[in-house]
Design a protein that fits this description.
The complex is a heterotrimer. By secondary structure, chain A is an all-alpha fold. Chain A has a single domain, classed as MetI-like fold, CATH 1.10.3720. Chain A has 12 helices and no strands. The two termini of chain A are about 45 Å apart. By secondary structure, chain B is mainly alpha-helical. Chain B has one domain: MetI-like fold (Orthogonal Bundle). A two-stranded antiparallel ribbon of chain B has the order 1-2. In chain B, strand 1 and strand 2 form a beta hairpin. In chain B, helix 3 packs parallel to helix 7, helix 3 packs antiparallel against helix 9 and helix 7 packs across helix 10. Chain B is globular. Chain B starts with 5 loop residues before the first helix and ends with a helix. Chain C is α+β, with helices and mostly antiparallel strands. Chain C has 2 domains: about 220 residues, P-loop containing nucleotide triphosphate hydrolases (Rossmann fold, 3-Layer(aba) Sandwich), CATH 3.40.50; about 120 residues, Beta Barrel (OB fold (Dihydrolipoamide Acetyltransferase, E2P)), CATH 2.40.50. In chain C, strand 7, helix 5 and strand 8 form a beta-alpha-beta unit. Classes of the chains: A mainly alpha, B mainly alpha, C alpha+beta. At the A-B interface, helix 1, helix 3, helix 4, helix 5 and helix 6 of A face helix 1, helix 3, helix 4, helix 5 and helix 6 of B.
């Protein structure tokens, strides 16, 4: 079967070519973060860890990193709690206009971040709220709440409804049902929503850019580094962010998906 | 209210769960949107914003070439990117789903979307390393003696499109793969059993069945692409401006909030139209 | 630990739909009651009213003499065992069973001891540390029972608890359920649509249809002396022979049917007036008595259409000579020789014929009675 062998060869070539395209920029980024020279472009002059040293010695970058973590964890927590409560209320009880309510909660997902940021910016200006990491956090909850709500709502089946009824029947108060039965039972999807929200917030630029003033998050700090053009230090920061994200992804994979796969 | 029935009491409690999220969404999404819509009807006098309650900004948008052009540049880039990304991603998803052995599929998929997890800003910067005048491509080609003068790659629309395609190929591979694997294998077996060859099976069975999934992915690409500021700003430069760049320009140099709001509303209208078209199509497909 | 239940004129409507229509029922303490009926008959709605998951639109529910009005499920002396068991998937069996006690603020050592005692009772003591997903269907069912009993309810409500099990396991669990009920003495209210299950476990069966109670009584009573056509047909195979009451004397009722006139002793058939529509209900196995001695009723000859062997009996379809369009199902003795085309005599003990008011909603044969 020559044609089958040919199509197999074609398939693998295509796979490799596309993987090449997908990995090219990342490979270049990481490789030249070790560049022993002032420019992160060929030729490669030899390896050094000097740029990583500079990154970790840069107090602005480090405080931006801390800000990013704070905003990401904080906004993801708020979005998860609000999203879980809303999903619980809408999935477990019959409320009027529940379709409309769901639609409203999901709506921010269909709007560009730029527009959400601009709306919040004009509103904060109008009301007289000064910009800070708090306003960035508020913006990030706005974009992450629909996500958390949708993920958790989708995982609430009717089977669990009976389990919660059983808990109530055995004497659990509403808050006990939520904290001791519903939340632990839905933990995989809550964790998935939480980690996804953390990564979204961690990587978000435009809202963080428009809604912050003096304290900024990491993507905004990196953005201002770009003004100095190509620079191995930027490569080093980028590589660090990449590693942190991949580590998060691994945690998600190991904790959440393993656990759900087991069931 | 001792007479309230059990169900009524339960429902009253349910509002307690939903209300915080609803209030948040209303306070920080609906109201800002209304404020922005109102501001788009205002004018700027010096640094003051005066509520004029007219559509002058919208009229200005259609009259001033540099503003209107932003929309067309954005639409052209977005359609090009969506089309190229789907064409590149579909075979990749198909190969992963069909040719890669089962136990390696998850790994292959994770690898295919790994650069997804670099910072969005850094990813565009990485393409700059590749495409810049002294970047990887130009330097390699000169080193190999194929060209003598560096090619103009960065700060072009091509660079913007490459940067976008890189991102959306990953996204679409994921969505199309999910669609391909959840299709019951018996459809294909039945088609093959009835005498269809490999291409016919694909054309008559696999493609129509995965088309709704592709449309959803394409819509997502459209929305994210048309609203993005970073990629055109870093890779496209200032030679031609996409709509988000024009919006940011109003905010930055000119502090023209009314015009920025107007452009945002227009951007949203475009996305909404795309959504309606997509939803219509999906509905038609189903019936 | 056990209490009587009284349901008075309970009605439940959902919009235009009446799920439960003016139902009254008295349940004695320690009784094993089975609510039997097809899906949509209102049996699960009635159970939900007892459990407090729904409030009645009108009427009252009392448990142990106390009005349950709008007492929440948690505050009622009832627990429910759900059809899908509703075990907490993230807890061990011990924690599942001890959950209700934990909610009642019982100390850890005490509630664990109680949980293990109950797990022991259902034969799962060694699995106390397992999670529900490690168990088989029958084992989960036992855990659900142990969990519901751990809080020592006055009334246990069982919502089709055996519905998800295969037939053999279901029969086995019926026996266990009955034995455990006798041991703990709690009032059990059990919902099912399986009449064999109902007969196997119930002290009294409540047959329900279309939101109303059709019949209440011991399994023997309901099977042998059903009060309505629905009750008779739901409790197993039955032949309905529609007719008209011709005359009623002190001692004898005469019913005119397509198979001739039938005379029945009048002792239990009071309340029928001449010319009213009635139906004779005859269980298939009652034709077997035709060879014995004693009082006799005959419905004429019938031709054997087909027959199959069921181990304990032959099941045959017969068409009567007087009305060949009608099909009668009869159970013949093991030793009988069933040959299609053969003629048999349709004789039976008049005491085994049940006279019911009205005609079947779908006449078995068109104009059979006229």
């Amino acid at each position: 079967m020559i044609s089958s062998r040919f199509s197999k060869l074609l398939s693998w070539s295509y796979l490799i070519a596309l993987y090449g395209f997908i990995f090219l920029p990342v490979a270049v980024l990481v490789l030249f973060s070790f560049q022993d020279g002032r420019l992160p472009v060929p030729p490669f002059n030899g390896a050094t860890l000097k740029w990583y040293g500079e990154v970790f010695a840069d107090s602005r970058l480090m405080s931006a990193l801390g800000n990013s973590l704070m905003v990401a964890l904080g906004s993801a927590t708020v979005a998860c709690v609000l999203g879980f409560c809303a999903a619980y209320g809408l999935a477990r009880f019959v409320l009027p206009a529940s379709r409309l309510q769901r639609g409203l909660l999901i709506a921010p997902m269909t709007v560009s971040y730029l527009i959400i940021a601009l709306g919040l910016l004009t509103t904060f200006n109008w009301v007289g709220v000064s910009l800070s990491l708090w306003t960035v956090g508020i913006g990030h909850v706005v974009i992450n709440l629909p996500l958390c709500f949708a993920i958790i709502y989708a995982s609430m089946g009717d089977h669990q409804k009976n389990i919660e009824r059983a808990a109530r029947d055995l004497g659990a108060a509403e808050w006990q049902v939520m904290t001791q039965v519903s939340a632990p039972m839905l933990m995989p999807s809550i964790l998935a929503a939480f980690f996804l929200a953390v990564t979204f917030s961690w990587d978000e630029f435009i809202i963080a850019f428009l809604l912050s003033r003096f304290d900024v998050t990491l993507p905004v700090e990196i953005w201002s580094m770009l003004r100095s053009g190509l620079n191995p230090k930027t490569n080093a920061v980028g590589s660090v962010v990449f590693l942190v994200s991949v580590a998060l992804l691994l945690i998600l994979e190991l904790i959440v998906f393993r656990r759900t796969a087991k069931k | 209210m001792a007479t309230a029935s059990l169900e009524t009491r339960e429902n009253r409690r349910a509002w307690g769960f939903v209300t915080p999220a609803l209030l948040w969404t209303i306070a920080f999404f609906v109201i800002p949107f209304i404020v922005m819509a109102a501001i788009s009807l205002a004018t700027r006098k010096g640094r003051e914003i005066v509520m004029a309650w007219n559509f002058d900004n919208y009229i200005e948008f259609f009259e001033k070439a540099h503003l209107l052009k932003g929309l067309f540049v954005s639409l052209e880039i977005t359609f090009t990117v969506t089309l190229i990304s789907v064409i590149l991603a579909y075979p990749l998803a198909w190969i992963i789903a069909e040719r890669v052995p089962q136990k390696w599929q998850r790994m292959a998929l994770i690898m295919a979307i790994l650069p997804f997890w670099t910072s969005y800003v850094v990813r565009s910067y990485s393409w700059l390393l590749v495409l810049a005048q002294n970047g990887v491509i130009n330097n390699s080609l000169i080193y190999l003696g194929i060209i003598s003068e560096p090619l103009e790659l960065a700060s072009t629309r091509t660079a913007t499109v490459i940067g976008f395609v890189h991102f959306f190929v990953m996204l679409l591979t994921l969505t199309i793969y999910a669609n391909l694997v959840q299709m019951p294998p018996n459809y294909r077996r039945a088609a093959a059993d009835l005498g269809a060859n490999g291409f016919q099976v694909f054309w008559h069975v696999v493609l129509p069945l995965t088309l709704p999934g592709i449309m959803v992915g394409a819509f997502l690409t459209f929305v994210l692409c048309i609203g993005d500021y970073i990629t055109p700003q870093i890779l496209g430069g200032n030679n031609e401006l996409a709509l988000p760049q024009v919006i940011m320009l109003q905010l930055g140099r000119r502090a023209d909030f009314p015009m920025a709001a107007t452009l945002s509303i227009i951007l949203m209208v475009v996305v909404t139209l795309a959504y309606i078209a997509c939803a219509r199509w999906l509905k038609m497909e189903r019936t | 630990m056990t209490a009587p239940v009284s349901i008075r004129n309970a009605t439940k409507t959902f919009g235009d739909f009446t799920a439960l229509d003016d139902v009254s029922l008295e349940i004695a303490a320690g009784e094993f009651i089975v609510l039997l009926g097809p899906s949509g008959c209102g049996k699960t709605t009635l159970l939900s009213l007892l459990g407090g998951f729904l409030s009645p639109t009108s009427g009252t529910i009392e448990i142990d003499g106390k009005d349950m009005g709008d007492v929440a499920p948690a505050k009622r002396p009832t627990t429910t065992m759900f059809q899908d068991y509703a075990l907490f998937p993230h807890m061990t069996l011990r924690d599942n069973v001890a959950f209700g006690l934990k909610m009642r603020k019982v100390g850890k050592a005490e509630r664990h001891a109680k949980a293990e005692e109950l797990l022991d009772m259902v034969g799962l003591k060694t699995s106390a540390n397992k999670k529900p997903h490690e168990l088989s269907g029958g084992q989960r069912q036992r855990v659900a029972l142990a969990r519901a009993l751990a809080v020592e309810p006055d009334v246990l409500l069982l919502d089709e608890p055996l519905g998800a099990l295969d037939l053999k396991l279901r029969r086995q669990m019926q026996d266990e359920l009955k034995a455990i009920q006798k041991r703990v003495g709690t009032t059990f209210v059990h919902v099912t649509h399986d009449q064999e299950e109902a007969m196997a476990i119930a002290d009294r069966i409540v047959v329900m249809n279309a939101g109303k109670i059709e019949d209440v009584g011991s399994p023997e009573n309901i099977y042998m002396q059903p009060k309505t056509l629905f009750s008779a047909s739901f409790m197993g195979e039955v032949n309905f022979i529609p007719g008209t009451l011709e005359s009623a004397t002190e001692t004898t009722l005469t019913i005119k049917t397509a198979l001739g006139s039938v005379e029945l002793p009048a002792f239990d058939h009071a309340g029928f007036t001449p010319d009213s529509q009635v139906t004779l209900a005859i269980r298939p196995e009652h034709f077997r008595a035709s060879t014995g001695t004693g009082p006799r009723v005959t419905l004429g000859k019938a031709k054997v259409e087909d027959g199959s062997f069921f181990g304990t009996h032959h099941r045959a379809h017969l068409s009567p000579l007087d009305y060949p369009g009608m099909t009668i199902t009869a159970h013949m003795p093991q030793s009988a020789i069933i040959e299609p085309g053969a003629w048999v005599e349709l004789t039976l003990d008049p005491a085994s014929i049940v006279l019911l008011p009205g005609h079947p909603p779908h006449p078995i044969q068109e104009s059979a009675a006229s």
